[in-house]
């Protein structure tokens, strides 16, 4: 199941939706689950039916950022939420910089949480289109410092997330934050979709074969082994969001 939660501006108009995969536990966020989320979202009668003309915010793992599934997305409409590394190893921050820069060069928007404001992540900061400020973990004084630092050292738009009270909204809005996400505005809403669920193994096998430019026969063999995967791909390709001009009825 997919849920989406609105991200709104100061006029409470929706500017985008963050997608959540409700079919996995929080501990099971993997590259494979990222692929499943994207395939399921795209095969839901077209991306326009799911998101309208708004931005799509998608949580990623660093492993999934090199996945071929991103080739199926319109980068101008997608915000990839990049997680911190869990530690501040300068060499790993530098190592991952080229991949992040390449995604941004392809037209994807990049979002980071407030940890990108730490000195260890300074190489990533110029790539930030959005920085999320988690009100559940940032004290008022930390929040003020983070907002000030972000404005001085980046061009990112700031999003206050987990806004649950009017007092929290007033606190961040008076400091100039213009984008908001949280229960005070909207709870995640389940998106109803009748889909056959492909296996993660088949999905990853298909992605790998496409990336290696496998033959049509090899790709067909993968699709024949998983009816759900074939069904979802047909729905996706025939959707308005994919941009096909003629309907495909079989592989």
From the structure above, extract its key features:
251 residues, alpha/beta, 8-stranded mixed beta barrel, 8 helices
Task: Explain what you see.
By secondary structure, the chain is an alpha/beta fold. It is 35% helix and 19% strand. Strands 1-2-3-4-5-6-7-8 form an eight-stranded mixed β-barrel. Helix 1 (31-42) crosses helix 6. It starts with a strand and ends in a 14-residue tail after the last helix. 34% of the residues are buried.
**Category by helix and strand content:** alpha/beta
Shape: globular
Order of helices and strands: EEHHEEHEEHEHEEHHH
Number of strands: 9
Physical arrangement of strands within the biggest beta sheet: 1-2-3-4-5-6-7-8
Please mark out the parts with pLDDT under 50 across 5 or more consecutive residues, or reply none.
Answer: 238-251
**Kindly state the mean pLDDT as a whole number?**
81
Report Rg.
19 Å
């Amino acid at each position: 199941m997919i849920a989406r939660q609105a991200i709104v501006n100061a006029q409470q108009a929706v500017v985008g939706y963050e997608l959540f995969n409700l079919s996995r536990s929080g501990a099971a966020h993997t590259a494979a689950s990222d692929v499943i989320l994207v395939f399921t979202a795209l095969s839901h009668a077209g991306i326009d039916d799911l998101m309208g003309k708004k931005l799509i915010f998608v949580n990623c793992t660093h492993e999934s950022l090199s996945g071929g599934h991103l080739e199926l997305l319109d980068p101008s409409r997608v915000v990839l939420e990049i997680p911190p590394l869990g530690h501040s190893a300068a060499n790993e921050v530098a190592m991952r910089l080229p991949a992040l820069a390449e995604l941004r060069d392809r037209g994807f928007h990049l979002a980071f949480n407030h940890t990108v404001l730490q000195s260890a992540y300074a190489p990533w900061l110029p790539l930030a289109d959005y920085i999320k400020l988690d009100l559940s973990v940032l004290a008022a004084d930390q929040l003020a410092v983070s907002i000030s630092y972000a404005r001085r050292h980046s061009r990112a738009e700031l999003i206050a997330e987990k806004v649950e009270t009017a007092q929290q909204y007033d606190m961040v809005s008076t400091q100039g934050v213009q984008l908001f996400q949280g229960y005070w505005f909207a709870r995640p809403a389940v998106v109803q979709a009748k889909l056959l669920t492909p296996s993660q193994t088949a999905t990853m096998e298909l992605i790998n074969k496409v990336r290696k430019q496998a033959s049509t026969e090899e790709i067909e063999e993968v699709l024949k082994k998983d009816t759900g995967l074939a069904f979802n791909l047909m729905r996706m390709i025939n959707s308005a969001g994919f941009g096909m001009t003629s309907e495909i009825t079989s592989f």
